[in-house]
């Protein structure tokens, strides 16, 4: 049974360098899966924020605050 607190899960297999896996296991303690889930969530958020910043830099006219200030001037 899944709930909003516990979404459905899928078992996956990944291949990691030995040293990275060992460091991850050491940092994660008893719950390597939860540690990896959090790391992936953080990486995806970071990537999305970087892409947003890149798009904003390409299209600064999309900034609503700047547009409102320009209209008020």
Report on the structure:
By secondary structure, the chain is mostly helical. The chain contains three helices and no strands. The longest helix is centred in the middle third of the chain and has 27 residues, at 32-58. It is elongated and about 60 Å long. The model has no long low-confidence stretch (mean pLDDT 87).
Distance between the termini: 57 Å
H/E topology pattern: HHH
Number of strands: 0
Question: What proportion of the residues form beta strands (DSSP E)?
Answer: under 5%
Main sheet specs? none
Question: What are the salient characteristics of this protein?
Answer:
73 residues; 3 helices; single chain; elongated
Annotate the secondary structure layout.
Blueprint: H1 18-28, H2 32-58, H3 64-72
Helix pairs in contact: 1-2
Summarize the structure.
The protein has 73 residues and is an all-alpha fold.
């Amino acid at each position: 049974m899944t709930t909003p607190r516990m979404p459905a899960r899928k078992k996956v297999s990944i291949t990691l360098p030995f040293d990275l896996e060992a460091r991850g296991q050491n940092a994660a303690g008893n719950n390597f899966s939860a540690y990896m889930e959090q790391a992936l969530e953080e990486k995806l958020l970071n990537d999305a924020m970087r892409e947003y910043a890149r798009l904003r830099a390409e299209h600064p006219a999309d900034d609503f605050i700047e547009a409102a200030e320009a209209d008020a001037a």
